[in-house]
């Protein structure tokens, strides 16, 4: 299940505080792919205020690890960069799921 956020200048907090817990509750086995959109805006951001607010790749990776995501990716629909890879990764995540930290937390012990 792709979660998308604009890398410039929207923060990741809605992904972490609202979407991830809701999906974990309703779809505990769904593979989450955190996707940073509008990647093309990062190099154009000459405005220091926007650059300071932009989500960096490392911040996106850390957020993905924190929410137990399958993968973190960035793309741009304007340039087409990374779009095909996001969809390919979503298909692979469905066909070949891997255990993520989020999924492995929900274990059941029968005695």
UniProtKB/TrEMBL annotation:
InterPro entries noted in UniProt: P-loop_NTPase, Small_GTPase, Small_GTPase_Rho
SMART domains: RHO
PANTHER family registered for this protein in UniProt: RHO FAMILY GTPASE
Annotated transmembrane regions: none
Pfam families with a match to the protein in the record: Ras
Record protein name field: Uncharacterized protein
GO process terms (BP): ameboidal-type cell migration; cellular process involved in reproduction in multicellular organism; developmental process involved in reproduction; hemocyte migration; melanization defense response; small GTPase-mediated signal transduction
Keywords carried by this UniProt record: GTP-binding, Nucleotide-binding
